[in-house]
Write a structure and sequence with these properties.
mainly alpha; 10 helices
Length: 206
């Protein structure tokens, strides 16, 4: 039953993560965020296309679905004879992937930062606090949200590694942080190219 339970945790996590919060919030305003800005469905593009209030709602919903995926994944795994912590890790990683490649909107989506952060809030909250602080500093200094997100995700992985070595978190937390970091980096490949060429859009630019 253990493999089945872990697989179920991953499937449920993916489907939760795939819920396109940005598109659903956009429908209330009569605007599809995919038609403007970066074409993504996350909070940053919602800010560009929908405004501050809707963007805040998208952020909260994206974080919530990542956290829910981890919590439900732990429950599914625990009831199926598997380790709840690994169920949480698989659910959270799958939710992040679902957000980036949503089956409900043609395998498009956001960058995975908020959803992955929500999952890590359940698994290793200290890493999220460190990552958020690092991201805010980078964005404040450079005004590149993408760069802040990338460095923040790496900071979460590094923090999880330090906590694992210290014996404060389990291997599942480190694995989840590293995989979420990888998904976030993959989702930012176009941003990385623009950062390298100097054409990336800064926060607040037209």
């Amino acid at each position: 039953m253990e493999p089945i339970a872990l697989a179920a945790a991953a499937v449920v996590g993916y489907l939760l993560g795939a819920i396109p919060s940005g598109v659903l919030v956009g429908r209330i305003r009569g605007v599809d965020p995919r038609t403007g800005g970066s074409g993504r469905t996350g909070a940053t593009n919602a800010l560009r296309t929908l405004g501050i209030g809707p963007a805040a709602a998208v952020l909260v919903l994206d974080v919530a679905k990542g956290a829910a995926a981890a919590i439900i994944g732990a429950w599914i795994a625990g009831n199926g004879g598997a380790a709840p912590a690994w169920g949480a890790a698989l659910g959270g990683v799958a939710a992040t992937l679902g957000h980036v490649r949503s089956v409900f909107i043609g395998f498009t989506g956001g960058r995975g930062v908020a959803t992955g952060g929500g999952a890590l809030l359940v698994l290793v909250p200290i890493a999220v606090l460190v990552a958020t602080a690092v991201m805010l500093v980078v964005v404040a200094v450079t005004r590149y949200v993408s760069l802040g997100s990338l460095i923040g995700a790496s900071a979460a992985t590094l923090t999880a590694a330090v906590l694992f070595v210290a014996g404060w978190v389990g291997l599942e937390a480190l694995v989840a942080a590293a995989l979420i970091d990888a998904v976030v980096t993959y989702a930012h490949l176009d941003n990385i190219q623009r950062l390298a060429s100097g054409t990336e859009r800064r926060l607040g630019s037209g």
